[in-house]
């Protein structure tokens, strides 16, 4: 991989932009049965939340992984980050009037929770060192 491509792949801004486009697009699709601008607003809200949560998820897992030992180091960080993400997503979508909240957040939560589990396992396997 070239140095330029490697730098782009490791960029938090690129990750946030990808999350915005992918999960915002999913939210528009999940709310497509409703008249505009509801699907578009849901997409903008989910896109922005996904970009922000993407930037904080890694740091949150690293922070939490230092707080737990033994088997809890494997399951506690992803559990707490999933609960926090769910709470934020449900609250903001409810406030913004997203019609299909459960459908809208299902894919972003599945992706972020999978990442959280895999990253937590990789940290716990190294003795809680990110």
UniProtKB/TrEMBL annotation:
Q: What is this protein called?
A: Transmembrane protein
Keywords in alphabetical order, please: Membrane, Transmembrane, Transmembrane helix
Q: Superkingdom of the source?
A: Bacteria
List where the protein spans the membrane: 40-61, 73-95, 101-121
């Amino acid at each position: 991989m070239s140095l330029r491509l490697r730098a782009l792949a490791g960029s938090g801004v690129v990750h946030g932009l990808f999350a915005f486009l992918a999960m915002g697009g999913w939210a528009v699709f999940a709310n497509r049965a409703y008249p505009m601008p509801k699907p578009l607003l849901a997409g903008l809200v989910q896109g922005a939340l996904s970009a922000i949560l993407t930037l904080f998820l890694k740091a949150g897992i690293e922070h939490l992984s230092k707080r737990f030992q033994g088997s809890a180091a494997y399951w506690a960080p992803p559990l707490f980050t999933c609960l926090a993400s769910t709470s934020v997503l449900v609250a903001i979508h409810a406030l913004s009037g997203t019609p299909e909240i459960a459908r809208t957040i299902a894919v972003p939560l599945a992706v972020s929770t999978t990442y959280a589990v895999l990253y937590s396992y990789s940290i716990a396997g190294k003795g809680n060192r990110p």
